[in-house]
Structures are given as C-alpha cells and as structure tokens.
Amino acid sequence: MAQSLEMDLQERAVGVYPPSFCNWRLLLAVMVITQVSVVLVGLGRGGLPGWQWLAVASLYAQWMALFCATGLCVMSGWTRRFSARGAWAGSWLIAMMLAVAFSFACWQMDAISKPGLIGDKVGMFVLKSTFAVGLVTIVFFLYLEIRARWRLELMAQAEARVQALQARIRPHFLFNSLNTIASLIPGDPDSAEAATLDLADIFRGSMRRADRLISLSDELNLARQYLDMEKRRLGSRLQIDWRVDELPPGAAVLPLTLQPLLENAVAHGVQALQEGGKIAVYGRAEGEQIVVTIGNPLAPEGSDTSGHGMAIRNIRERLSLAFGSRASLLTSQDQQQFFAVLSLPYVEHSDH
Questions:
Q1: What's the rounded Cα separation, in Å, for the pair 141 and 134?
Q2: What confidence category does residue 302 fall into, taking pLDDT thresholds of 50, 70 and 90?
Q3: pTM higher than 0.85, yes or no?
Q4: CA-CA distance, 204 to 214, in Å (whole number)?
Q5: Which domains are delineated in the chain?
C-alpha cells in the first residue's frame, strides 16, 4: 500500500497516465457512470424507459463495463510502456476492441438461446454498442486526466511550500546550532562532536523529497535529534517528555511532519517563556490509525507568533493530498497549553 501511494505521489515526474482500473473504488465509479449513461439513453428514446428495457439494458451495459475495465486492468502494465498520451490512446483502443468482442459475443448468444431479443443485425448492434462505449470512455478519460493533473498540481504546490518551509528552518536554526557547538568546543569537545553529527543528520533529513514516504522510526529519530540540539542551546529551560513506545516504528509517514510541529513548540512556546517549559510528545496506535499529540506551554500574551500557522497549514495540505480524509492535524489549547494532534492511517513502510 505504501508503494502504491509513493507511485501516486511521484507520478508527476513521468506524466499523467491512465489508472489501472484494478481499484475497487474506480470500478464502482465505472458502474455508476455506466448506469447514468443507460438512464440517459432510455430518456432519449422518449419519456421514462420501461422497467423491462431498463433491467435488460442495465445488465448488458454493466457487464460490458466490467469486462472492459477488467481488460484495462490486465493490460495496464503493457500500456504504461508507452508515453502518457500513448497510454491514454492505447487504453481507449483496448476498450474499443473489448467492446466489439463483448457485443458480438452477446449477439451470438442471443441468436442461439433466444432469437429476437436483440432486434438489430449483428453489424448495427456491434456498432451501436462500440460507439456508446467509445463516447462514454472518452468523456470518462478526460475527467480522469483533468482530475489527475489538478491533483498533481496541488501536490507540486504543497512540495514547493515544504521547500520554502525548509529554507525558513535552516538559517536561524543553523546559526543557533553553530553558536551552541562553538560554545561547547572549549569545555566539552565530545558534546560538540555529538552536536555536529546531530546537526548533519537533521539537515540531511530536511533535504529529503517531500513526496517520499519514510518510516516513523526515522521521523522520530529526526525529531529527537532536533530537540537534542535545542536542549543543548536552551539547557534546563527546555524539558522533554517522550512517550512514543506504543507507536509502530515501521509505519510509513511523510517526512517533516513532526519536526515543524516541534519547532513551533520550541519557538512559540518554550523559548518565549523566561522560565522555559516542557514539550510532551505522546504517541499511540488506535485501531487502524496512528495518533501523535504534541503539547507545549502557551506563549505570554503579546508575544510574536507570526509564522506559527504556516507549518500547520503546510502539513495539513500534504496530509490531505497523500492520505485524503484518513489523516488529520487538529489543534486546540486551554489556558496554559497548546496541543497539536496528528492522526495518520497505519500504512506499513516498504523497507520494513
């Protein structure tokens, strides 16, 4: 499942290809569109269609649609060898050939079993059926291509925002970290070396592609290293409470989902308070969902919290594009604490 999600996220690099029609949701959409087309054809014959005609036409059209969709599913590996345009054209031609074969077979079965049910001659019946399939397929393919291009454009915009977020993170965090390392060198060179290695890992992780799924354990390690760097800088002002042992480490997540939330917790919570405060990270599995809650103290009234919402908006957009309604990022606060609750579907990472 994680591999199919990554293929969907990375498809824009090679163009918009037709779907494989092996997905049950797409098959359901095909059946709905087919039934709507049958009803429209019946209305075009003059008035409401009779129940007998509607039943026979629906049965024939639905089996035709499923036959063509199954053929497209089987041939999807072959059509993807072509360019994107070639794949769409090849899929349409395959649907046409399958429609010819299916309609001809149905006419022959009618001629043998119950002559007269199909009033048209074989050539006219096959032509009508194939023309109907071709017309509906063109409209459906146009819709799928426009929808895919719109989705990929949104994904590209989200990735561009992630790149902007990464660029925003690097300057001030880098300067603070280098100052911390410099202050550690004279008295604690071992800690300075560890901090340098953590900083390298953090920036290596922040340069990952935004559409590449990583394991939850890798994301948690990056989050720990980030907070370790901030702990060296803030000292006793920053307290951290990790409770993530119940999280499945092999779950697949988008990179840079936790670190921006933790940066918000440090910059707009702990750092804004003279006495500092505690960041609490709780994680657990709830059925088929993974829930991570980050809590931090509220900044004093009048503190500058500009930029606080940008990371949250970016993460929400990326989650929506990658997981749809199965993922969410909710925020709430009381008189003392701010909470960010991240909910993700449990998808096993391909490396695990």
A1: 10
A2: low
A3: no
A4: 13
A5: 2-152 (no CATH), 208-345 (3.30.565.10)
